[in-house]
Design goal:
Blueprint: H1 3-26, H2 35-63, H3 69-74, H4 94-115, H5 121-149, H6 153-166, H7 178-185, H8 192-209, H9 231-246
């Protein structure tokens, strides 16, 4: 594998994870539990899709075949996406969305905090810009998790169940392969083992405030690195890509 091929794959990982999580958050539009949260979650979606655009545009440029961000978002099949498994999990109830986002927000925050020092100018710029948005995302999901975990008996039970269910998808966040090895040697990518240490600190601190029990590390799903996904991604991208596939190259 060449360095350019590794850069393309790394760009798609970042872009796809933001795109898919952004699409999930867009599903909350007009469905939020209160008006303020309806607007907040829609804005989170816009932030994530903006982050996706930057990385997908970069991936298209690196490929050198003229593909745009739209081509990569709407023209690829399920087995060509490299997003995290956690990002494609269904929204479920509001508390479940909060748990999923919290686990993912903490990952993005510490990833970008390290990646802003990348020797690749595009990755460094992307991380420096994105961490400003992700800092808010993490604060938003953390405070809601504390509010729900340390709330009523029902809210506590629901978010603890969601945490238990989603925990087995967190191992996928930190898996690495040849792409990481190549780019880490060139000081472009970051060692996810180091990110995991910081992620653990954040997770433990917020769960303590929320009076929630951290699940034990047992079986962990994986697949992101090989573009293997759950059954949910195919349904999501079919809906996401419908208009573009029905009317190719249409302009509005």
């Amino acid at each position: 594998m060449t360095t350019n091929e590794a850069l393309i794959n790394y760009s798609l990982r970042l872009g796809d994870s933001s795109l898919i999580l952004g699409q999930r958050m867009a599903e909350w539009c007009s469905n939020g539990p209160i008006l303020e949260e309806d607007i907040a979650m829609t804005n989170l979606s816009l932030d994530l899709i903006g982050q996706a655009r930057m990385m997908l545009t970069y991936a298209g440029k690196l490929e050198g075949n003229g593909k745009s961000e739209d081509d990569l978002a709407y023209g690829r099949e399920e087995r060509e996406f490299y997003n995290t498994l956690l990002s494609e999990r269904p929204n479920g109830h509001f508390g479940e969305t909060v748990v999923r986002n919290f686990l993912h927000d903490a990952f993005f925050y510490h990833l970008y905090d390290s990646l802003k020092n990348s020797k690749d100018e595009m990755f460094a710029a992307h991380a420096a810009k994105s961490i400003k948005e992700v800092s808010y995302h993490l604060r938003h999901s953390s405070e809601w998790l504390v509010r729900l975990g340390d709330g009523t008996e029902e809210s506590h039970t629901k978010v603890q169940e969601s945490l238990n269910d989603l925990w087995e998808y967190t191992g996928d966040l930190f898996e690495m392969n040849q792409v990481d090895e190549i780019l880490i040697k060139e000081s472009i990518a970051v060692d996810l083992n180091d990110v995991k240490k910081e992620w653990d600190k954040t997770i433990n601190a917020v769960l303590k405030r929320a009076i929630l029990n951290r699940p034990e590390d047992a079986y962990m799903h994986s697949g992101r690195l090989n573009a293997i996904h759950s059954e949910y991604l195919g349904h999501m991208i079919a809906e996401m890509q419908f208009l573009q596939r029905a009317y190719p190259n249409a302009e509005w």
